[in-house]
């Protein structure tokens, strides 16, 4: 593990450092969960910041590692600073709103809330489109040190990530992530995915983590590129089914 973080710092010091900041911030928010009773939608207000900090840390470390294979390192540095600034803005809004006991997303009840939500949407759209540019760079070149199975894992993982990152727009358009009821009902422990109704966050989560899972399959398990492609197709099918279930108002796991 030490070797991983040492190599990551060498490959991308910007995203390596930002990932550590996110991880430390997640730990701080866990501490805040223990000392505050402020709630948003029936759960501790700092549960959401913890999830956002952890997911941001995993995302930037993954991108920092993968982009180390690209030849266009100037583009990588620009992307790294842009992603850092965009995610920092998003995370600050999420934390401040949690501290105030208010929603950070879908909050259009006030002018300030609406402006912040709109800015967050614009910022994250820029981040996703810029990530698409990085995916295109991987499609246009084949780094010599990468096997075909791993390279296709990176390519497909990034493309699937981008598709399901944009799926977040469905939630923004509805101003809710629950289908069939208002947000805030019973949910799975820790992650709070609805156990009574459809929840669009589930496909969003699994689709975006294709960024890690598909390359890992290509690196460790696949022996031929077509195996990586087949795994990606099955993965997309499974996540799409989860999305359709949510849109139909059915929970992934009911009754817990």
Automatic annotation (TrEMBL):
Parts of the chain that traverse the membrane: 12-40, 52-70, 82-103, 115-140, 152-173, 202-222, 229-248
Lineage top rank: taxon: Bacteria
Keywords in alphabetical order: Membrane, Transmembrane, Transmembrane helix
Name of protein: Uncharacterized protein
Top-level taxonomy: Bacteria, Pseudomonadati, Bacteroidota, Cytophagia, Cytophagales
